[in-house]
Amino acid sequence: xxYTHLLIGRSLLLCALVLFPLLTRSASVPDAAAxxxxxxxxxxxxxxxxxxxxxxxxxLDTAVGLLREAGVQWQREEIFWDxxxxxxxxxxxxxxxxxxxxxxxxxxxxxxAAGINVLGLLDYNPYWFKSKNPHxxxxxxDWGNYVxxxxxxxxxxxxWITYWELxxxxxxxxxxxxxxxxxxxxxxxxxxxGRAAAQAADPNAIIVMxxxxxxxxxDAEYSYDALTYLDEVGKLGGWQHVDIIALHPYHPAxxxxxxxxxxxx
Length: 265
Fold this sequence. Notes:
The protein is an alpha/beta fold. It has a single domain (41-259), classed as TIM Barrel (Alpha-Beta Barrel), CATH 3.20.20.
C-alpha cells in the first residue's frame, strides 16, 4: 500500500513539474526578441494575387498590408501583354489605363517595398490580335519585344523582379490552342524567344516555364495532361530554355498525385 501511495505521489509531483512551466509560460508575455522574424525571405511559400489586375489603385496599400500580415513571402504578378501595349511597335504603359487597374508600377513597387518577392508572369497574345488568335509567326517577334521591355523595366532598371514565368497553362485549350499556341512546338518556340529576350534585357533573369494545369488526365479536345505535355516539350528541346518548371496541382487530385504510380510511368 505504501509503495502504491509512493508511486501516486511521485506521479503527481512529475505532473506538477511538467505542467508548471507550461502554465507559467502561457501566462507570461512573450519576449519579442525570442520570437521568429515576421519575414523569412528564404521561405518558398506565397500566393497568386495578381494585384495589378484585381485590386484598384486606391486599395493597393491595404491589400499589400494584408499580404504582409498573412506572412506571404512570394506573390505572382501577371503583367498582361494586352494591357501594357496597344499596338505593334507601340509604347509600353506601366502605370495603368485610367480605369484604376493595371498600374503595374504601383502594384509591384508596393509589394517590393513591403518585402514581398514578386514572380513576374508574362502571358497571352497581344491586344491587336485578341479573339483572332493568328499563328505565332505573326506575333512571335512582338512577343520577344514585350518580354524584353518588361524584363528591362522591372528587372534591369528597377531591380524589382528576377524570376519570370513565360505564359500560363499552355496545356489547356483556353490558354493554349485558343490563345494561338496551336501545337506544342509553338510553345517551345515561345520559350526560346522569351528566354533570349529576357536574358538580353537582364542577364540575371531566371526563367520559369509557364505552369502546367493539373496533374490528372484531361480529356478536353486540344488539351493535354501536364506530364504528357511536359514530356513533349522536353523532346522538342524546350527544357533547355527554362531554369524552373512550374506545375499547378489542382483538385480533385492532391499535390502528391504527381508522385503516384498512376501519373508517373
